[in-house]
């Protein structure tokens, strides 16, 4: 099945090239996939972008990639509360925090140790980052964008921790929106559907599951990571100045489809 993948340059031409000039952006979980694509989107529109990840190998790889010259990569583990506080202390202000970190561990999530670890990264890590940068965001009247999942709305029995963490993220986002809103900070989520990333390669690399999932989407294709960039830029832009405590599904209509995978 031929797919019409979103082109980054065409997408970014939609926005002013200086839209985020002078703005400071942190994107967590940005050494690959969705987080990296979003980091590139903000950098292309003039922002000063710091991308974080917990893998020293991935950080080293991305620092050497010529395509990433406009982005600064820093090692940071979402489980490390003290490390996050120390990282935040190196900033004076922050305009946008994108929490894109996430892990998925399959059926091992039915064990207590793995379940709690996934929750710690995907949900607790968002709270740690949001709290550490709270005062920075207040000074900038900035915004937080949390990356949730369509599995906040659907059931996947094999990954209870991932589904629970991403569902909890919706509740956390709404709560923080009201807690931080009086100070001028907006907090929203984006819920991706099936996008071609390393995490979903086990599905899109197999023709049968690839086509089955694409066929369930209203647009009859998989999403690309670039399909999520515009949503993040919109949320962070003045065009969304009265939008907070909301979730934006970017799933090609998958969740509301009337057939089963």
TrEMBL record:
<dbReference type="GO" id="GO:0016616">
    <property type="term" value="F:oxidoreductase activity, acting on the CH-OH group of donors, NAD or NADP as acceptor"/>
</dbReference>
<comment type="similarity">
    <text>Belongs to the short-chain dehydrogenases/reductases (SDR) family.</text>
</comment>
<dbReference type="Pfam" id="PF13561">
    <property type="entry name" value="adh_short_C2"/>
</dbReference>
<protein>
    <submittedName>
        <fullName>SDR family oxidoreductase</fullName>
    </submittedName>
</protein>
<dbReference type="InterPro" id="IPR002347">
    <property type="entry name" value="SDR_fam"/>
</dbReference>
<dbReference type="InterPro" id="IPR036291">
    <property type="entry name" value="NAD(P)-bd_dom_sf"/>
</dbReference>
<dbReference type="InterPro" id="IPR020904">
    <property type="entry name" value="Sc_DH/Rdtase_CS"/>
</dbReference>
């Amino acid at each position: 099945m031929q797919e019409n993948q979103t082109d980054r340059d065409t997408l970014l031409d939609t926005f002013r090239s200086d839209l985020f000039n002078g703005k400071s952006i942190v994107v967590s979980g940005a050494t690959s996939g969705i987080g990296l694509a979003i980091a590139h989107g903000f950098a292309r529109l003039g922002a000063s972008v710091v991308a974080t990840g917990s893998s020293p190998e991935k950080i080293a790889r991305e620092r050497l990639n010529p395509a990433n010259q406009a982005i600064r990569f820093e090692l940071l583990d979402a489980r490390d509360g003290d490390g996050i506080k120390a990282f935040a202390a190196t900033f004076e202000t922050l305009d946008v925090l994108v929490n894109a970190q996430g892990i998925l561990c399959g059926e091992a999530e039915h064990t207590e140790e793995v379940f709690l670890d996934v929750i710690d990264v995907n949900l607790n890590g968002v709270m740690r980052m949001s709290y550490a940068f709270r005062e920075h965001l207040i000074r900038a009247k900035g915004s937080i964008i949390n990356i949730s999942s369509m599995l906040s709305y659907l059931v996947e029995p094999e990954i209870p921790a991932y589904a629970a963490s991403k569902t909890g993220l919706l509740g956390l986002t709404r709560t923080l929106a009201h807690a931080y809103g009086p100070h001028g900070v907006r907090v929203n989520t984006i819920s991706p559907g099936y996008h071609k990333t390393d995490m979903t390669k086990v599905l899109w690399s197999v023709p049968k599951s690839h086509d089955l999932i694409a066929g369930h989407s209203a647009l009859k294709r998989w999403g690309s990571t670039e399909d999520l960039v515009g949503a993040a830029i919109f949320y962070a832009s003045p065009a969304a100045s009265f939008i907070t405590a909301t979730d934006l599904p970017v799933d090609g209509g998958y969740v509301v489809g009337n057939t089963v995978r």
